[in-house]
Amino acid sequence: MQKEAGFADRLAELMAEHALTTVSLGAALGVSDETVRRWRKGERSILLPQLVRLADYFHCSLDFLAGRTETYLDYRPQAMPPFFDQLRAVMAEKGATRYALVKALPIYDSYFTNWKHGKSPNLLTLILLADYLDVTVDHLVGRDR
């Protein structure tokens, strides 16, 4: 989970800046304090819906949370379309195919089926896809349309 280290560091930084405990942040997000503690230590991957709640809580971008930018927020967050639909739109925009993504990245073809049926990707997968497609995570999920 090396690419998620930026997220763990950023979360710890934001919690310290806002004087938040794992209990208070967990309660605000509707997750357990143990979940927040594991995110902060990089022991647990965060899924897209939880990542969005966290970004909304701190009024920042997903890329800022992931440690991919130092810009807190440079757009007005939009309601997100279903992830699979947005991924397909970005793939079309970039001329990428499902086959190319599966060959180039450590993701399985079955992920696409899962996403089509409403399952959420984790942060590491979002970062890998965003890097490959040369877009921000926020663009990949449709928050900065």
Description of the structure:
With 145 residues, the chain is mainly alpha-helical. It is built from ten helices and no strands. It is globular and about 45 Å long.
Rg, alpha carbons: 15 Å
Described by strand count, sense and barrel closure, the largest sheet is: none
User: Regarding quaternary structure, how should these chains be classified?
Assistant: single chain
Beta-strand content bin? under 5%
Gap from first CA to last CA: 28 Å
Q: What is the string of helix and strand elements?
A: HHHHHHHHHH
Q: What's the β-strand tally?
A: 0
Structural class: mainly alpha
Shape: globular
Average pLDDT metric? 94
Residue runs with pLDDT of under 50 for 5 or more positions: none
**Count of DSSP H/I helices:** 10
Helix content: 55-70%
Which labels suit this protein?
145 residues; mainly alpha; 10 helices; 0% strand; DNA binding; Helix-turn-helix domain-containing protein
How do you describe this structure in short?
The protein is 60% helix and 0% strand. The chain is mainly alpha-helical and 145 residues long.
